Amino acid sequence: MFEWMAWTTPVAIFFTCIVLMLAGMTVWELKSPTTMRKGFLPMATTRGDRLFIGLLGAAYINLAFVGMAGWITEWLSLEQEPSIWISFVVSMVWLVWTLRKG
Amino acid sequence: MTDRRFKKRTIFLIAYLIFALLPIYWMVNMSFKTNQEILSSFSLLPQAFTWDNYKTIFTDESWYSGYINSLIYVAINTTISLTVALPAAYAFSRYSFLGDKHVFFWLLTNRMTPPAVFLLPFFQLYTTVGLMDTHLAVALAHLLFNVPLAVWILEGFMSGIPREIDETAYIDGYSFPRFFITIFLPLIKAGVGVAAFFCFMFSWVELLLARTLTSVNAKPIVATMTRTVSASGMDWATLAAAGVLTIVPGAIVIWFVRHYIAKGFAMGRV
Amino acid sequence: MSVTTKPVNQKAWFLILPVFICVAFSAILPLMTVVNYSVQDIISPERRVFVGTEWFAAVMRDEDLHAALWNQLKFSGAVLLVEIPLGIALALSMPAAGWKASATLVIVALSLLIPWNVVGTIWQIFGRADIGLMGATLQRLGIEYSYTGDALHAWLTVLLMDIWHWTPLVALLAYAGLRSIPDAYYHAARIDGASKFAVFRYIQLPKMRGVLMIAVLLRFMDSFMIYTEPFVLTGGGPGNATTFLSQYLTQKAVGQFDLGPAAAFSLIYFLIILLFCFVLYNWMQRLGQTEKEGGHD
User: How far apart are alpha carbons C170 and C187 in whole angstroms?
Assistant: First the structure.
């Protein structure tokens, strides 16, 4: 039934994480409702807003890294292109930072 | 002073209206010519006036079935869009609930996603569920941008209705469905009309998804036209006539909603 | 959505459910599929190879894509620069009531209801130098006009077509905004002896701000997605002078059947749109709030 979607393990893990995050946020929200607050972002946000901004930012960080990996390899004259895990870690740090301080 | 200003404005308006109508006029003009006349001479009015191009379309099944197919899926789409959008718009306009703002935003992003992005998976999805080349497939695919739009417009109109009306009805013992159908719907009649108009319009004008999801049985008129362009290339007269006929339904609908149209374009927010 | 306080009722989710299911079926499942495609090399439905972020890297470094994106931004910018002022001017000169207003509204709105490929066809016919009114007229005026041969002419023709097609949307929105201004405002301005420009600057423009935001948002998004009209009119040429993002994507996905790169590109496209949507949506929300707060004094 879902063969046409051409599932792969990494993508399945990715979407499971997203669903878990949304479920977690819902439970958290029911237990202690969020309040609007102003952090380093240019506008007042709720927890849900910050999660969205965090995820969107994370996506952009990874994309930018992938796009510039070629240059980085050249500049630092590396043997091979730097691992995507570097930008993944950076983007997760960004996500946590946005959620807590944004 | 005021008089001269008034004139300047009128001249500008008339100039724009001419600009708006000239390309359409030229197509109408060509639809009454023969191909031979189009290519050989250049005239503002048909020299040898002919209805032949329209006759071709109304007698050739590959042409007129295109119109029927389009009308069928546009009708299905408009019906489904409004049916699901009405309760949702009511919920957005009356209550606050967990994640309401995010769901509303998510709906809007679908309105703003280029159909090209969803082209491939739609093709696979509808092949898998066996809906390829049916009217339902196109109608369902068009829900992607019509449902969010309908919710947006209806929410605007509904927010304009004071909440006291709902409360009074509930106190009077109306159940929600009965209240919604007998009291609330008549109040937002204009909004429903405008939303229906927009669903009709966006489903009617869309080409990319409609063309990808159909091949023979549900081929819409817009796809019939592009294939004529690429195949014979030069049948300008029939093409022009087909084009004129696609404008007609829109022009009729617009006449009916002309009083609400400006408001509808503002998504009921003004 | 309005910012007034509404009663909290989680049961409202049941009313949202039908919409949620409909849109999820046609948005979430396909989106997941696109993500799956984007990390694989799909040789045939049975033979797929996981390639990680290779396609993303390829797309991000694709010179043609950069050209298409640049083309797209220039085009969207030009569309906004011309259509917004022209639309406002048009709305200001449209009659306020009577049969003239109805007739003008219908004529102005007409171009919005024409199927997009017919719009392309109309201009294809209209602009041809041998059989088209505009093409032939320009030719007689001594301009070597050809939208199929000259890159600049093609680009300008697509722009003119877009102006013809979509300025009415801006005009109708602005018109709706203008009609919501109470007559009392104009009376007060007349007593003060305000000039026409002052009336425009201090009464009409602020009142139109909300609808103009919607106009900018819609025009930006729609011009960013433009596909059908240039596809019919120029097919993206000559060269790739009028190849915009959607066209580039469709060429890849349908024309060359490169599922992987096309999917990666789709996702990047989606992220760009998502970011713009989010920023503009929040901007609009905030504008709505300040307008409401300002309305009290």
Answer: 27
Chain A residues with CB-CB distance to B99 below 8 A:
26, 29, 48
Domain parsing of chain B, residue ranges: 59-265
What CATH homologous superfamily does B59-265 map to? MetI-like (1.10.3720.10)
Question: Which of C85, A26, C109 is closest to B102 using CA atoms?
Answer: A26
- Spelled out in words, what is the top-level CATH class assigned to the domain C62-294? mainly alpha
C265: phi then psi, degrees, rounded to nearest 5: -65, -45
- Give CA–CA dist B241/B56, Å, rounded: 9
pLDDT tens per residue, range B189-200: 878 888 888 888
Q: How far apart are CA B171 and CA B155, in angstroms?
A: 24
Work out the mean pLDDT of chain C and round it to a whole number: 82
Give start and end residues of each alpha helix (H) in chain B: 2-31, 35-40, 52-59, 61-94, 100-111, 115-128, 135-159, 163-171, 176-179, 185-187, 189-205, 208-212, 221-231, 236-256, 258-265
Q: Compare all CA atoms of chain C with the CA of A84 and give the residue at the minimum distance.
A: C53
List the 56-75 stretch of C: residues with Cβ below 8 A of A. Answer: 56-57, 60-61
Residues of B within 8 A of A48 (CB-CB) are 99, 101-102
Out of A6, A63, A66, name the one closest to residue C42 (CB). A6
- Dump pLDDT digits (tens) for C200-240: 888 888 877 777 877 887 788 888 888 888 888 887 777 77
Whether C296 shows a pLDDT value over 50: the answer reads: no
